[in-house]
């Protein structure tokens, strides 16, 4: 659709559905099914916590999951009681293709990695329309080859062996399988499967949409989900399948073309896995019927808790076959008319086009519109029903063997309050099929562009009592809820609040107040738990920065002592400013919040002072000689050693910035009086930040860790293409370390950091948590935000050379735009017709059936921009959608915003 449409989001059919989503239930069904439930912590009942080994891919087809389900192109209700997904078989594979395959941490030379090709192509916020594409080879899927060759590539200096490297897609010898979902009504789900044979010869394909009742009955009556009678799928005389489950409304699953329905139970095949008697028709019975030809494997009574509609196709060379399926209320009309089905599909697609035309009306470049729409599709498809009751998981279930006693004192044993059963935005539904606290904050800011209500709900959810620890800590991620993520949630709440206001015209102060009170508890946890010396200098641990320093910052230091972290301390300064700004926003209607704003203002000043004088002894995190921030190693005995690694750690202080508009003293007189008193009577605090009595453009006031000199010094390094600035964004580690690695000798060992533009060859963390120099969207996005905020204060007269040494001087907002442009060039087609994210693979770059399907990787090569890490981590890489969106000024500063409603 053209970007010149004058409609606004709320005027579109999808916008109106979104406004009624709570009352009409449009979110009740969605793409909430994980792509991987096997190999997750919550399915692991082993003594030692070896999740990948306890329930491997080989068990997944035969073993009932305790806490969820998985599948390809999955759709489910918001309690995941009924699940709809797609299975395929090319007639050659050893098993049905029911779920995505990938390597475990120990099998891959760069850690776990999915070995499939699929893309999320479209979606609407209410999931009224969704589309994804999966590529399935004609040849046998190379399971054994992928495992064996990756095992041979032992060194981290060797590339991963990917499915595209096996040759199975050469000559177009594969099927493009596109799955479209449309809702005729909130509970009426249309599923269209379109198969295109890209090869030069006809090829067989078995297509099996599956309906599964999540197993809630095998675990014992203590579970809240336990039910009697059991759910039932049963073939009716009409040729459709009736789905009944307790008191829930019955559903009807129908195929709009001839299909053979197969039935079994969603229960473990204990005979295959453990050599003990089990159900007659277990979870893998449909697999055995199709792949092994065993007619007796499935239930001859045509009933069970798992069923598939089996269609055998021979697709001619270059041919297309379309199949239609419908899951709808049994009480409604038996709508199996293909014409009516197609009309609903066409209508929902047209409505999706209209929605995105309104959103993208100011984006002229068609490629930018395509990329943004796919980025937002990835965000929408990455929602997942996440279920995990840690207390029950540790204790085990009454109807199952008791887990090893040692588990009660192992992983996450101090998080027994955590009991999650909610729709949550995931970083990635295969490699990271669990939420991560700081990832989720970035997700919410992107979601606010199209669904601010969902974004607000996610931030509130993370701070609810069944998520947040009683001590105030936010859960980090499933592998270790007690780890520490950067405290970016107040920043996210404020951004979501402003974007929501820009879209709706109404400030949702109730949301802001609700999340603010919980974040104050979290702030207190940080102060009490992560400031080891009560000096306002923070430790925090790895803080999401993985292998970016010489030590594993989450482990006991080999030197003893503590590590005073420039990033952890800067995050807390930023947190203080964010909470101060939220308190001032709330003080607009309730002056009581001015006192709380003052509290966080004071805390910001003490942190700023501590960064310069750690412990009051004159040693700071700022190195005046290098003009950069470093972590400081505090050794036993009191010696302090700056670790002069130039990395993102030293740039994060830029992000602690807030500008107050010129009328703040009139609007908040109590806050202004106290602030002036502090800055007058505590010159030791006032000297550390930009002075209160030096107003900037429009008499605005700047609160920042950086006086002008330090800010310019950091930006000179950041904008130096021989250091941090790459053609595609800011690197995680300075390229200067390629020629001059940092070395730290200790007790006969030498710890080092050099520049590696992709994954690190030093496995400090193990698995795939090892990268050193790549470009990483979250911090880049925050740097863009910080530059924009600094620009509000300094105005157009303030310029900096960009790139350093180029002779070109830009204002700070122009530098923010330049950095945004470099970041978006990662995924946009360049003048040479290539997308850097796709790397050097000619199949991806040149083939018309690949080149416009954009992967949103976890991070990107620091020199070439090629995609690295998880290939579907649209979560935070979805920030690309915001960078492509024109920004406009709202109260408190510019935000990426949808057209006004």
UniProtKB/TrEMBL annotation:
Superkingdom as given in the UniProt entry: Bacteria
A UniProt-annotated Pfam family: MGH1-like_GH
Record-linked Gene3D superfamilies: 1.50.10.10
Coiled coil regions in record: none
Residue intervals of the Mannosylglycerate hydrolase MGH1-like glycoside hydrolase domain: 432-533, 704-874
Protein name (record): Glucosidase
Source organism of the structure: Methylobacterium indicum
Top-level taxonomy: Bacteria, Pseudomonadati, Pseudomonadota, Alphaproteobacteria, Hyphomicrobiales
